[in-house]
Amino acid sequence: MKKIKDILDKYDINILKYSYINNAVIVDSNKGKFVLKKKKRNDKKELYDYLLSRNFSFFLYPENDTNDDYEIYQYITSIKTVKEEKAISLINIVSLLHNKTTTYKEYTLDEIKEIYESKSDYINYLYNYYSELEEVFSNSVYPSPYELLFLNNVSKIYNCLNFSKVIVEEWYNLCIKDRRKRIVFLHNHLSLDHFIDISDPKLINFDYSKYDSPIYDFVKFYKEHYYELDMINLFNLYQHKYRFTDSELLLFFIEIIIPKKIKFSNNTCNNTIIVGELIDYVDTTRNFILKEKKKQEKEDNNKLNKE
Question: Which of 177, 174, 277, 292 is CA-nearest to residue 223?
């Protein structure tokens, strides 16, 4: 706390009281309320100045010198809204961020092959991993609840992995023909927790931001909130504001459809929850992709008919 006090003293900010929330320090002072966070990267000023140069100002600019070990931000209370409304506001801001920062390049053949091989290898690895689990659980004399839940639903995991293989092949064949690639500035840690929904909304926590394909912000958002938000409508809203190319859409599907590797502990209750969450994710995501592919096919057919 002494280091924080020393930094605040530089700006004549006198602490009246303070508290901790996660990794942040909330300070009530003679100049108002502030949030202090340990600095994780040294290029924040360049990062924020770049966004301003692109006419994007929906973020909090630090109140202090970027040479300090901590960043000082104004404490802003978000408007109390339902999650769905906050999510819509977030998607509007993120689509604007991507529109404002889009640049173009081309995949090299090596890049395409590297992505293709890494995804294919990981799918095969997961297939073998879950096959071994199935064999072990099948040989249990008295299978536990989570083992039974897994065995009753393992076909869904295999279907998901097989579906993943098809999409990876589809992406590869498309990218070999058309190697264009869009790059945007990604928040790269997108969730409702990192968005302040006010009249002048703000994205917060750019500690993991980077330049890459636009798909990755929605990938993280999807995985964080798929179980509680209407992802179909939110994705369609995003697509209306910033439409993925065909290859981007396939890569997005790949990133969300490949299930994670689950690890078990000695707690039967926790293991049952873990398996249940995996099965729910597999079901939800496969249905999401099938609906999106069906919608895309319908749009393509309508376009062909008009021509």
Answer: 277
- Per-residue model confidence as pLDDT tens digits over 120-143: 999 999 999 999 999 999 999 999
pLDDT digits (tens, 9 = 90+) for 237-291: 999 999 999 999 999 999 999 999 998 999 999 999 999 999 999 999 999 999 9
pLDDT of res. 106: 94
Greatest Cα-to-Cα distance within the chain, rounded to the nearest angstrom: 70
Q: In what order do the strands lie in the sheet with 180-186?
A: 103-106, 180-186, 210-212
Give the integer Cα–Cα distance in Å for 32 and 75.
8
Measured CA to CA, the distance from residue 15 to residue 47 in angstroms comes to 29
Q: Which long-range contacts (CB under 8 A, 24 or more apart) does 54-57 make?
A: 54/100, 54/101, 54/185, 55/100, 56/96, 56/97, 56/100, 56/101
Q: 27-81, pLDDT tens digit by residue?
A: 998 999 999 998 888 898 899 999 999 999 999 998 888 788 889 999 988 777 8
Please name each of the domains of the chain with its CATH number. Answer: 2-75 (3.30.200.20), 84-306 (3.90.1200.10)
Quote the CA–CA distance of 104 and 266 in Å, as a whole number: 49
Round to whole Å and give the CA distance between 241 and 89.
Answer: 12
Backbone φ and ψ of 21, nearest 5°: -130, 110
CA-to-CA distance for 159 and 154, rounded, in angstroms? 9
pTM for this prediction: 0.92
Instruction: Tokens for 97, please give them.
Output: 């961020």
CA–CA dist 72, 39 (Å, integer): 10
